[in-house]
């Protein structure tokens, strides 16, 4: 040691180890560029080589004396235990420092001025005692990645962010952070902003300056009550002018450029239980011109604004467990999936609108042509609080009883629709089921069309495009059993149905469903009377080259795997 030929030193041990080194051990190592370790050095170091580029030290703090000057050429600093005041000294500039990683450091309570104007990455993941971040951090124009994930005590961020190069900002699980900074209009590079499970109460309208943002995570922000407060340009300009006075910064200009999330395809506000009203102030298509997914599940919303009909690219709307939701307007023509599971307060007009709209999409209403197309690996679906499918849906006489359905189709068969209805009278109405619909073609490998949790008192409609490779004149399609995974003490038994169902032969066997109100646990329900108080019913709807016109009705039993096969001669002839 002590020669100019040494370029790197690594002092690592799998166990907690103490190493005795002299205070000036590195003084003669003029060309040392890499120093890595995880051991405890008993004596404070008085010197670090000026040429040191990479410093990584974990488990124990690297003991530095007040005489030790920071290396001017340092590019990367990675430590899990550090006393910042001994490294980042006032008045000293780290002009070459680009990476700072201080993950899981418990000693940091306040992040000071880092004096690193060219910093590109700042990772403070799980610094659980960090409370405050210095105002100067908001001016780091070259910062690209900023990670504060798991800083559970964090309360104070810079009042305004002017981070022109920032592309990734993570504030997940910052549960005590209630105020989000104002955004400078020139922050165009930010693409990922994560605030999941944070304590944020409201988001400023200046967030609309993030025109490059494609991902905004706000799941489980239980305190969030206002999204995009005062979302209008005049108020946004007032916020910018206010920030200009606070910062005395000449980089603010009168901003007249575009605003809105011009690149965002998904907005997830799931489990933000504080969001109840005010959606019309921010749910504007101009703010979300390319939005395809909107998740408002488990929120307190009462109505969805009429403006949603103008979201021309919206395909997925998730509103499950919005138990106060009463009204849904007409949705845009682009809609393909709506999950309204357990939205029990929806008014009849909203339910009727949804049924009508999806009937038009699927082409199963009179005088309609199917609009939706999807590949088998990309399903669409509708889930609604209901106990039956509307009678005005156009069906054929293709019906079968069993846990799976097998039939022959011609070479031009294309689309498949599966209905699953759950009755409302059950032992435990809060119990959900994990359901899946699977399909195999000509004996091939089963493929899952859809898998989701569903609940009693709801209807589940799944549809997708079926592609037959090398089709022949006759192709066997099998829609495998819909699987429900529930805890139940009810045994499934087979019984013979002597009372015929329309289109189903007599003496057809089917599994017993759950106990009915009469508690006759061994008595199978009559499929012909339309009343299935327990268990659930599936119907499979098939689309040939003409619009959807064929339906199969199937009562099925949980944990029973009996298969019934049926050949539709009409489809076979086609």
TrEMBL record:
InterPro entries: Disease_R_plants, LRR_dom_sf, RPS4B/Roq1-like_LRR
Domain of life according to the entry: Eukaryota
Pfam families attached to this UniProt entry: LRR_13
An example Gene Ontology biological process: defense response
Keywords, ordered alphabetically: Plant defense
Annotated Disease resistance protein RPS4B/Roq1-like leucine-rich repeats domain residues: 163-219
Protein name stated in the entry: Disease resistance protein RPS4B/Roq1-like leucine-rich repeats domain-containing protein
Source species of the chain: Castanea mollissima
């Amino acid at each position: 040691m002590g020669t100019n030929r040494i370029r790197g030193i690594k002092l690592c041990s799998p166990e907690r180890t103490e190493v005795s080194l002299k205070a000036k051990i590195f003084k003669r190592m003029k060309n040392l560029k890499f120093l890595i370790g995880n051991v405890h050095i008993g004596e404070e170091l008085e010197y670090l080589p000026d040429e040191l580029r990479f410093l990584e030290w974990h488990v124990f703090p690297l003991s530095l004396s007040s005489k030790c000057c920071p290396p001017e050429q340092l590019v990367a600093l990675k430590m899990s235990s550090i006393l910042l005041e001994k490294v980042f000294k006032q008045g000293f500039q780290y002009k070459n420092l680009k990476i700072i990683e201080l993950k899981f450091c418990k000693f940091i309570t306040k992040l000071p001025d880092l004096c690193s104007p060219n910093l590109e990455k700042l990772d403070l993941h799980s610094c659980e005692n960090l409370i405050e971040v210095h105002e100067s951090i908001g001016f780091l124009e070259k910062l690209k990645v900023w990670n504060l994930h798991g800083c559970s005590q964090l309360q104070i961020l810079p009042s305004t962010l002017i981070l022109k190069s920032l592309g990734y900002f993570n504030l997940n699980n910052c549960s005590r952070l209630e105020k989000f900074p104002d955004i400078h209009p020139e922050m165009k590079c930010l693409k990922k902003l994560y605030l999941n499970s944070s304590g944020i109460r409201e988001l400023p309208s200046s967030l609309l300056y993030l025109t490059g943002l494609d991902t905004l995570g706000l799941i489980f922000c239980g305190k969030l009550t206002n999204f995009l407060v005062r979302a209008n340009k005049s108020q946004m300009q007032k916020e910018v002018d206010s920030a200009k006075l606070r910062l005395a910064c000449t980089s603010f200009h009168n901003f007249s450029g575009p605003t809105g999330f011009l690149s965002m395809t998904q907005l997830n506000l799931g489990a933000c239980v504080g969001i109840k009203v005010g959606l019309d102030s921010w749910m504007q298509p101009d703010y979300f011109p390319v939005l395809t997914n909107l998740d408002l599940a488990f929120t307190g919303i009462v109505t969805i604004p009429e403006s949603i009909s103008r979201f021309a690219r919206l395909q997925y709307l998730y509103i499950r467990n919005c138990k106060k939701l009463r009204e849904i307007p007409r949705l845009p023509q682009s809609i393909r999936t709506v999950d309204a599971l357990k939205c029990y307060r929806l008014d009849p007009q909203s339910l009727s609108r949804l049924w009508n709209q999806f009937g038009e999409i699927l082409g199963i209403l009179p005088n309609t042509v199917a609009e939706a197309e999807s590949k088998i690996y990309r399903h669409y679906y509708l889930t609604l609080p209901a106990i039956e499918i509307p009678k005005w849906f156009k069906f054929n006489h293709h019906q079968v009883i069993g846990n799976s359905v097998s039939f022959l189709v011609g070479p031009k068969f294309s689309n498949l629709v599966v209905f699953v209805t759950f009755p409302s009278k059950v032992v435990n109405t809060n119990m959900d089921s994990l359901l899946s619909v699977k399909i195999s073609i000509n004996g091939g490998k089963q493929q899952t069309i859809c898998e989701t949790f569903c609940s009693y008192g709801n209807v589940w409609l799944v549809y997708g495009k079926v592609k037959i490779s090398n089709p022949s004149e006759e192709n066997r399609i099998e829609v495998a059993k819909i699987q429900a995974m529930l805890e139940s003490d009810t045994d499934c038994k087979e019984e013979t149905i002597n009372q015929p169902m329309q289109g189903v032969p007599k003496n057809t066997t089917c599994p017993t469903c759950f106990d009915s109100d009469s508690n006759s646990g061994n008595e199978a329900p009559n499929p012909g009377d339309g009343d299935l108080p327990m268990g659930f019913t599936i119907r499979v709807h098939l689309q040939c080259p003409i619009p959807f016109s064929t339906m199969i009705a199937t009562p099925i039993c949980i944990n029973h795997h009996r298969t019934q096969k049926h050949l539709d001669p009409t489809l076979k002839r086609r």
